[in-house]
Amino acid sequence: MPAEEFVAGWISGALGLVLGHPFDTVKVRLQTQTTYRGIVDCMVKTYRHESLLGFFKGMSFPIASIAVVNSVLFGVYSNALLVLTATSHQERRAQPPSYTHVFVAGCTGGFLQAYCLAPFDLIKVRLQNQTEPRAKQPGSPPPRYRGPVHCAASIFQAEGTRGLFRGAWALTLRDTPTLGIYFVTYEWLCRQFTPDGQNPSSGTVLVAGGFAGITSWVAATPLDVIKSRMQMAGLKQRAYGGLLDCMVSSARQEGLGVFFRGLIINSARAFPVNAVTFLSYEYLLLSWG
Ligand SMILES: CN(C)C(=N)NCCC[C@H](N)C(=O)O
């Protein structure tokens, strides 16, 4: 099993993650809290109340976890294509796989990464939703979680391993098809702008990666909202009876627009994050031969 894809996936994912985390914090807050009037209001309030550091809450854990998550995604995707088409990453420009194979390999990568991602994502969302300033201010209550390890330990103590996988179902449903869409969009755009048999230029990779990110996140947003709400359930809002109950009661209370909360910020974040992720992934694999 070629291992370079796993390492390239890890490094490229980490670069994309740092770039996109401030957008991600605003998105999670808009999806799970009703105190903000929109993106700008959320950004202004976060900055005033918590300074620039507020945008980077909950980032240390994803940085550590991206080693697992993105390397599983890209490593499984590439190795699934190897099984399906008997071609290595280097051979795939000369013998491009069919879009069906790309979709199936993407879904497989998405499905497996979702299970690795679930506990890390839960902790990230819980920490991002703590709006208390970092520096202790007189009269303000201390945040519920002191950091990622404390957050993980508290959830584990209260609810056991199952608690750490809260929202995992919604996450799997979100990521399995949308990662198929992600890789198909990337491949399709690369092929449109690249002569047969050649490697795509850096510009093509940036644009194709960016649009792959946007397309997949547009498709993922409805389940992303549900996933974030289920992860927060039981803390501030009421616990839901399951995924369907969360969907129905969110739609009843807030209208169908609720499924598109965070869509704009998700898309704005997705372009630079995935442009950088794919560019560094392709570059690393090319330079390792
Ligand atoms: C629609 N979904 C779930 C994705 N496209 N997932 C791939 C993640 C890529 C990058 N780390 C990001 O966070 O955008």
UniProtKB/TrEMBL annotation:
Compartment(s) where it occurs, according to its Swiss-Prot or TrEMBL record:
Mitochondrion inner membrane
Q: Which PROSITE patterns match?
A: SOLCAR (PS50920)
The entry's keywords: Membrane, Mitochondrion, Mitochondrion inner membrane, Repeat, Transmembrane, Transmembrane helix, Transport
Topology in the lipid bilayer: Multi-pass membrane protein
Solcar repeat boundaries on the chain: 1-83, 97-192, 200-287
Keyword Repressor part of the UniProt annotation: no
According to the record, the signal peptide region is: none
Where is this protein primarily located? mitochondrion
Instruction: Return the InterPro entries for the record.
Output: MCP (IPR002067), MCP_dom_sf (IPR023395), MCP_transmembrane (IPR018108), Mitochondrial_Carrier (IPR050567)
Could you give one GO CC term from the UniProt record?
A: mitochondrial inner membrane
Which Gene3D superfamilies has this protein been placed in?
Mitochondrial carrier domain
Q: What is this protein called?
A: Solute carrier family 25 member 45
Q: Which organism is it from?
A: Moschus moschiferus (Siberian musk deer)
